[in-house]
Amino acid sequence: MPAEKNGRDGGVQSLQRAFELLEHLADTGGEASLSELATLSGLPMPTIHRLIRTLVDLGYVRQNTNRRYALGARLIRLGENASMQFGAWARPLLAELVEEVGETANLAVLERDEVVYVAQVPSKHSMRMFTEVGRRLLPHGTGVGKAMLAHLPAEEVRSLLDRTGMPAYTEHTFTDPDALAVELSRIASQGYALDEAEQELGVRCVAVAVPGAPVPAAVSVSGPSGRLTAEAVAHIAPAVQRVADALGASLSRAPLSV
């Protein structure tokens, strides 16, 4: 059997190609046919078939009843652990944010149509926040979720909302997709999202998407509405933007250690 060729960075070529196929599956929304993968990757069909069969055998890809291929369940554990490592790696930046603004800072990612909080540094106030690491919420009802959705294609957002629905967490939660679309456009223009008691009454949140993150991610500062006044938000929003930018820049310079 011939030896595997080395990739341009010294890696085994078939391993590189297998990961590229997983990335292509993710880019198509998680499902594609062999011919679609061949078009996206530029690889010959026999190579595609061999790599996909190996990934299916390992559980990283599954074949659906319609004979199309989708991301497999075995990736879930890897993704969840990587998200938590991402959170641990980001904690020093969140701590700097808390020191600057005096309120609780959070990091969340979008995972399987849900917002997952992967890191938090609490404020020193006796009344603290409201959510915890590992909590899952639907994105339409959170500041971090709206910040992430504002940077996704409109059709992708609509598909997500069709899958999840838009239940109300409070009387202030967006429950109409058209109204949310207007809100997301405003968020994209101003550079940050506000959660105005949409997830929990009496709580306001300022959130900014992390640019260049490998998965949708956002940094937020949260606190009681009585402390996070309009004047406070005007001071906090630029600070959250700086930390999100710093986190994105760090991600672009070096890979996460997982």
Automatic annotation (TrEMBL):
Protein name in UniProt: Glycerol operon regulatory protein
Role this protein plays: May be an activator protein for the gylABX operon.
Ranges for domain HTH iclR-type: 12-73
Domain IclR-ED: 74-253
Swiss-Prot/TrEMBL keywords: DNA-binding, Glycerol metabolism, Transcription, Transcription regulation
Keyword DNA-binding: yes
Stored PROSITE patterns: HTH_ICLR, ICLR_ED
Gene3D superfamilies listed in its UniProt record: 3.30.450.40, Winged helix-like DNA-binding domain superfamily/Winged helix DNA-binding domain
